[in-house]
User: Which sequence fits this backbone?
């Protein structure tokens, strides 16, 4: 096991009252983030992704303070897939192209797109319009696009919430294999207890009041 | 021009009463606003009439300048009082762009197009007023459309933001769309002008006895100037303003 964390959070406090335990994320590992609603899981994801700055504490990515690093480059490497995904009202292929264009990167080949769709368990043609997809399929198409960016850390917020148990397990098996194969790290928010066995590390966050007290 | 008697003039308010009755009947809850707006308009224009009469009789440059500055300040107050701006710096950027366009375009128009002195109140006051009024309406439309765009596209904005897309690239389509919304009324009125409608200034000049051809030249020139004022002020306001909608960590601040 590689003992040096790729991402470390120390003494983090957000929005003035949510404090977090120290967190270390390792390459090729899956970290499961649990906790009831309002415990600050999604806020933590925003901090990890750099779309929100903590009010206190230090975030180190590759042993360097995130404040000293290019925020956009960092966001591309620590990719956040939130619960409400967005797809353009066009075909799946057009969506791949549009997201690559937005990120100013060269788009992957058609074959590669198909591979990522298969990986995300989407039995659909690339010419399928995203308006025809179900909520779960839209989420997986978006995950497929995000995986194709090959981020260093992938943050998935409830990736299986719209899936049945069997599909959820199959998707997670594929994602976890992919993560390990490409030296990535996966941080997962999920209420699904069936996903626990995928995790190498589990963090439970407690809900806190505005004055910082832990609510039970 | 034929002088309207006070009694004949008062009869126009019958039309306003009809509007009020229709609004009441249709249960449109804006009767108070319409009443206040009508009273304010009447009082403001009456006062303006007296002030302008005095100014035209005493055309001192300082008076014209003071009137122009007070028009600017009044318009700026209107722009600032709107709750459509997203944060303070964005608001300042909009106010400065408004100020810039409202000073530069009237000066250009009066000095180079009408070949008059900028201190001639007969030209500066009505022309600057028309340009500022249209610019204010343009801003109103643009800011409303921009805010609605941001609200209606929250999912795409957040998603692209999280993928590491530059905030400017995310905001630009919404800025362009708001800009189009602001320009549309001016472009539409340019398209229909002369065929469907004779605009206010042209009508006023013709009623005042000016030769239609000369009045039309003025109208064409003023329409282009209005278009330029709306375009410059709204574009600069939104384009420079968007830089204040995210911080140095590329996080949105609205």
Assistant:
């Amino acid at each position: 096991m590689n003992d040096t964390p790729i991402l470390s959070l120390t003494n983090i406090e957000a929005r003035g009252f949510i404090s977090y335990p120290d967190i270390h994320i390792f390459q090729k590992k899956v970290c499961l983030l649990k906790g009831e609603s309002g415990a600050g899981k999604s806020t933590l994801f925003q901090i990890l992704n750099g779309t929100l700055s903590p009010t206190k504490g230090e975030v180190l990515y590759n042993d360097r303070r995130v404040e000293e690093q290019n925020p956009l480059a960092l966001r591309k490497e620590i990719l956040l897939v939130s619960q409400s995904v967005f797809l353009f009202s066009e075909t799946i292929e057009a969506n791949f192209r549009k997201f690559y264009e937005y990120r100013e990167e060269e788009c992957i080949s058609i074959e590669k797109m198909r591979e990522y769709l298969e990986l995300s368990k989407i039995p659909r043609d690339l010419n399928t319009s995203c308006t025809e997809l179900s909520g779960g399929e839209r989420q997986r198409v978006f995950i497929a696009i995000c995986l194709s960016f090959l981020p260093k850390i992938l943050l998935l917020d409830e990736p299986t919430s719209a899936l049945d148990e069997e599909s959820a397990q199959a998707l997670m098996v594929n994602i976890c294999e992919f993560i390990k194969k490409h030296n990535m790290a996966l941080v997962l928010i999920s209420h699904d207890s069936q996903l626990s066995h995928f995790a190498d590390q589990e963090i439970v966050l407690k809900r806190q009041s505005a004055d910082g007290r832990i609510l039970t | 021009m034929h002088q309207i008697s006070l009694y004949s003039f008062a009869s126009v308010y019958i039309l306003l009463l009809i509007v009020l009755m229709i609004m009441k009947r249709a249960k449109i809850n804006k009767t108070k606003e319409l009443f206040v707006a009508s009273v304010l308009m009447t009082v403001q224009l009456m006062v303006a009439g007296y002030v302008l009469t005095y100014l035209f009789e005493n055309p001192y440059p300082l008076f014209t300048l003071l009137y122009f500055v007070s028009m600017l300040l009044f318009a700026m107050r209107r722009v600032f009082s709107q709750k459509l701006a997203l944060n303070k710096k964005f608001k300042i950027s909009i106010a400065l762009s408004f100020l810039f366009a409202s000073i530069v375009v009237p000066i250009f128009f009066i000095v180079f197009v009408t070949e008059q002195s900028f201190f001639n109140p007969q030209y500066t006051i009505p022309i600057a007023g028309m340009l500022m009024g249209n610019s204010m309406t343009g801003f109103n439309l643009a800011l409303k459309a921009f805010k609605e765009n941001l609200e209606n596209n929250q999912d795409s904005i957040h998603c692209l933001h999280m993928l590491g897309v530059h905030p400017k690239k995310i905001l630009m389509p919404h800025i362009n769309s708001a800009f189009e919304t602001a320009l549309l009324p001016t472009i539409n009125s340019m398209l229909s002008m002369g065929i469907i409608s004779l605009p206010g200034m042209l009508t006023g000049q013709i009623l005042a006895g000016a030769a239609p051809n000369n009045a039309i030249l003025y109208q064409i020139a003023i329409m282009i100037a209005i278009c330029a004022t709306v375009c410059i002020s709204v574009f600069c306001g939104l384009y420079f303003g968007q830089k204040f909608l995210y911080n140095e960590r590329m996080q949105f601040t609205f």
Observations:
- Chain B touches chain A at residues 155-156, 158-166, 169-170, 249-252 (CB under 8 Å).
- Residues 121-152 of chain B form the longest helix (32 residues).
